[in-house]
Amino acid sequence: METESEPYIRLATLRQLHQVVADLNTARSLADTLQAVADGVIAGLGFELSAVNLVRPDGDLLVAAVGGSAGAEALMAGRVGSRCSWERRLSMGERWGDLRFIPYSEGWVLDDDDVPQWHTPGPAPRFPDEWHPMDRLFAPLYAAGASGGELIGVLSVDKPRNGRHPGAWGREALQMYAFHAAVAIGNARLRGNMQRALLRLEREQQALRASEESFRQAFEYAPSGMAIAEMGGDQHGRLLRTNDALCRLLGRPASAMRRFSFSDLVHPEDIGTLLRTSAEGGRAELRLARRDGSYVWVSLRNSVVADAADGPRFLLTHVEDIEERKRHELQLAHRASHDSLTGLPNSAELRARLAARLCATPPRPGGGYEDGGASDGGVADSGGVYVDAAGHLHGFDDFEFFGTPPPVETAPFDGHVHTVPPNEDSDIDDGHKGLAVLFCDLDGFKSINDRFGHHAGDAVLIEVARRLTNGVREGDTVARLGGDEFVVLADGLGRADAADLAVRLRNAITPPIRVDGRAVRVGASFGIGWAGCGMSAEDVLHSADQRMYIEKRSRSKERRRAG
């Protein structure tokens, strides 16, 4: 009887399978489709339990739907199994086409992994194809339904109603169902994406209409400057529209602004900054010309007003007045690098300027430079360049050849010109010009502070700073090191020139200084040092300081006060 009715049973099962497959494509959402996949296994394939494990963007698999058991759903739904654990399962057991069957005798090793499961122990099978509670059967779901494609999920099934392993026909039916389930899930995702895109498009169109009006009002009544400029063509950069704030900032009417572009208004020194500023997201701080000929510091921020059909059309520029901030920044920078009393560069600024002229390359015996002692290291000619052993190119003021230099066209020039001190071992001035460092210490200043107070001392320091500044050339540096100590950096001097400069500055300091109706006098002691590459700024200042004390001790107190 069972054999005779088998064709009828298979036909009924086929009709059920056809119906559940059709139901997969009637679900309205991805969640409904996933639940339809799980329920279809129960209704059409003869299993009592099923679960759909969906691949997440991070690769792990989420239990997205459970069918056949409310208890199993409460236990498993929403839980996640790692990708590596699932890959381990799909590589084990017996391959039934695309299906993976793991018998209880092998699956015990999976009991403690992180994949959600509902299996319970049970007795050994009574006959070869009896289903054991710990048996596992998986149907992988591939994108577009094709085996070997991207894995989008795994369909887990359990507890066949007849209590037996599925035969050839049952396996084929499950495999075919998994194919259609994968297609249905892909279609549901596509429908969801299309619905979200249509909804987003509708919202964007509504927002666009609202934003056009908002933009017009924001542009016209913005408290800071706004401008719209043309992009492309012969009129690229020409201002098409400006708001009232920008017109007030530059003192020009809107009708006049339309004759200009920003390149016509920018300060000549800032034209390079403007040209380097990108159209999209570009930022720049530069000066723009007012109608009265003065300039104002502004911050420009660009963005492109794009047309979906024709591409970028206009450049929207936000112009912010930063004149006050720039003035404040310059004041802060000046305070950080200059003495608050005299206005001269301070100790930190002095050391920075001195260090900028020095490098760590020590001199060679005989007047040259090398890169750390290599016998065939850096070489150059008089007024030429120096190539160190690392292949870097340096400049020179005065140097002789030592050996054969590497080909200079292969060495990158780093822009550094070596600072070379004159030869002080000889009594004869060879005429070499170097960077002189004159260390000045005032004589008799402490007594003025003690007798007349710090106010008088400050007035003396201010006058001495003025006299030192007037006594040097433009481009030389006069800095206050601290207290009553000053330092002068004078480049391009020979030994005799430096000595003459020290005498002139001493003579400029010694005349009486009037403070609060009384005349006071101070003297000055100078020590002359020479900066040279291979020395640090501290080395140079220490050398000049020591020479100043030698010079101070060599003169009597009366002579120091008189200059």
UniProtKB/TrEMBL annotation:
<dbReference type="Pfam" id="PF01590">
    <property type="entry name" value="GAF"/>
</dbReference>
<dbReference type="InterPro" id="IPR035965">
    <property type="entry name" value="PAS-like_dom_sf"/>
</dbReference>
<dbReference type="InterPro" id="IPR001610">
    <property type="entry name" value="PAC"/>
</dbReference>
<dbReference type="InterPro" id="IPR000014">
    <property type="entry name" value="PAS"/>
</dbReference>
<keyword id="KW-0175">Coiled coil</keyword>
<protein>
    <submittedName>
        <fullName>Diguanylate cyclase (GGDEF)-like protein/PAS domain S-box-containing protein</fullName>
    </submittedName>
</protein>
<feature type="domain" description="PAS">
    <location>
        <begin position="211"/>
        <end position="293"/>
    </location>
</feature>
<dbReference type="Pfam" id="PF08447">
    <property type="entry name" value="PAS_3"/>
</dbReference>
<dbReference type="InterPro" id="IPR043128">
    <property type="entry name" value="Rev_trsase/Diguanyl_cyclase"/>
</dbReference>
<dbReference type="InterPro" id="IPR029787">
    <property type="entry name" value="Nucleotide_cyclase"/>
</dbReference>
<feature type="domain" description="GGDEF">
    <location>
        <begin position="433"/>
        <end position="563"/>
    </location>
</feature>
<dbReference type="InterPro" id="IPR000700">
    <property type="entry name" value="PAS-assoc_C"/>
</dbReference>
<dbReference type="Pfam" id="PF00990">
    <property type="entry name" value="GGDEF"/>
</dbReference>
<dbReference type="InterPro" id="IPR052155">
    <property type="entry name" value="Biofilm_reg_signaling"/>
</dbReference>
<dbReference type="InterPro" id="IPR000160">
    <property type="entry name" value="GGDEF_dom"/>
</dbReference>
<dbReference type="InterPro" id="IPR013655">
    <property type="entry name" value="PAS_fold_3"/>
</dbReference>
<dbReference type="InterPro" id="IPR029016">
    <property type="entry name" value="GAF-like_dom_sf"/>
</dbReference>
<feature type="domain" description="PAC">
    <location>
        <begin position="282"/>
        <end position="334"/>
    </location>
</feature>
<dbReference type="InterPro" id="IPR003018">
    <property type="entry name" value="GAF"/>
</dbReference>
<feature type="coiled-coil region">
    <location>
        <begin position="187"/>
        <end position="214"/>
    </location>
</feature>
